[in-house]
Amino acid sequence: MSAAAVEGPYTHGHRSLTLLEQADQLMEQLPGHRVEILGGVLTVTPPPDPAHAKGLSRLRRPFIAAGLDGGETEVLEGLGLWLPDGPEDFAIPDLSVVDADFQDHVIQFECVDPASFRMVLEITSGNYANDLRKKVAAYGAARVPVYVILDRKHNRLHVLTEPIEDGYGSHRIHVAGEKVTLPESIGGEVTLDVAQVLEDARRRSPREA
Predict the structure, then answer these.
(1) Is the peptide bond prior to 93 cis by the omega test (within 30 degrees of 0)?
(2) Are 50 and 42 in contact (CB under 8 A)?
(3) pTM summary value
(4) CA distances from 191 to 65, 116, 117 (A)
(5) Which of 184, 113, 109 is CA-nearest to residue 144?
(6) 163 to each of 136, 154, 160, how far by Cα in Å?
(7) Strand partners, 192
(8) Which position among 44, 56, 78, 114 has the lowest Cβ density within 10 Å, counted as fewest Cβ atoms?
(9) How far apart are CA 96 and CA 116, in angstroms?
């Protein structure tokens, strides 16, 4: 299922709602959906498909095994990240590695200062263009050190590092058969088996279920 831009107008009495107020309204109306504001555009993504949910659950394991979930860092799903490239922009990565004191750095709308993030990870669904383009620019501008994308459409794993104003200076693409060790800057040694993480998140036909 794909993410969709949402257009108003939304009003409260005679006053137009801000984007954040619209986002809050949509979150109440569409429980389970992911609501984000990217580049000043309100975007809604349906709940994850079963393979996405399984793949994300499995992806947490190597980060936990590396000791990143507790102590100096936490491994979290669905934590809001406040984006500096717009007055009301924010994203909700599938998975994040953040500093342990992240709760002391909430900026607005329960979203955390990007300086608290050591890594963000997305698993693509129908919204793969957002993950591969819009969020590359947004996370790079936010100076998130490492951005990992599990690209289910093209069966690849992307590892982006060296954030710059409109993206990342280093963008490496890995395929099945490779094992990828993520930068130690995330707080520990995490190696991902590309074939395994792709298999864990692979959509299956009803006959395979």
Answers:
(1) no
(2) no
(3) 0.89
(4) 10, 22, 19
(5) 113
(6) 9, 23, 8
(7) 180
(8) 78
(9) 10
